[in-house]
Write a structure and sequence with these properties.
The protein is built from five helices and six strands. By secondary structure, the protein is of the alpha/beta class.
């Protein structure tokens, strides 16, 4: 009896592992023959003409640190303020073309912060002092925006890890400071 159970278990395990290996192998990403041999390239982003990009503006975080953002004023009066959060390893330049387009079309005034530890000259590259500090920094930015634009509808959006920050912000003690949250991740 134990022999039959052992044999059944061995056969089941073999079938399971065979199916798992088949699924894994069949779902492997196929190389794009048009770009075979190319590496990940940011040349397109670097080659953009940034002449019309707004200068960085400072705001003060609760710990006294000076943090920075870019402001793209809407071409038409609007109460919509859109804070776009960049992904890791990048900074407010990531959204230059999108922010410029949205503001020129009158869709919103767009704010693109350099998150703590990011930007051209961060005090400490990619680092924070405590868990939740990025959420606190975002809350401080929104409070500054609310003083400048008292009747504003503030929407927080993010890409990649910026989207993760938008989600964490929404679920944090600061979540009610924004009127809406949006995020997206490359797929």
């Amino acid at each position: 009896m134990l022999r039959k159970i052992g044999l059944f278990t061995l056969i089941s395990l073999t079938i399971y592992l065979g199916i798992a290996a088949g699924l894994i192998l069949s779902d492997r990403p196929q190389p794009d023959l048009a770009t075979a041999g190319e590496s990940l390239s940011f040349d397109v982003l670097i080659s953009v003409n940034y002449a019309k990009m707004p200068e960085l503006q400072p705001y003060t975080a609760r710990d006294g640190a000076s943090l920075y953002y870019r402001l793209y004023e809407s071409s038409t009066p609007t109460v919509k303020k859109l804070v776009l959060l960049h992904g890791s390893g990048w900074h407010s330049m990531q959204f230059y073309l999108l922010a410029r387009y949205l503001s020129e079309q009158g869709a919103a005034t767009v704010i693109t912060p350099d998150l703590r530890g990011h930007g051209f000259n961060p005090e400490r590259c990619g680092d924070v002092d405590y868990v939740g500090q990025l959420e606190d920094d975002l809350a401080d930015l929104i409070e500054m925006l609310r003083k400048r634009y008292p009747n504003a509808d503030v929407v927080v959006g993010g890409h990649s890890s910026g989207g993760g920050l938008a989600i964490r912000f929404a679920g944090s003690k600061h979540g009610a400071k924004s009127d809406a949250i949006s995020f997206w991740h490359p797929s």
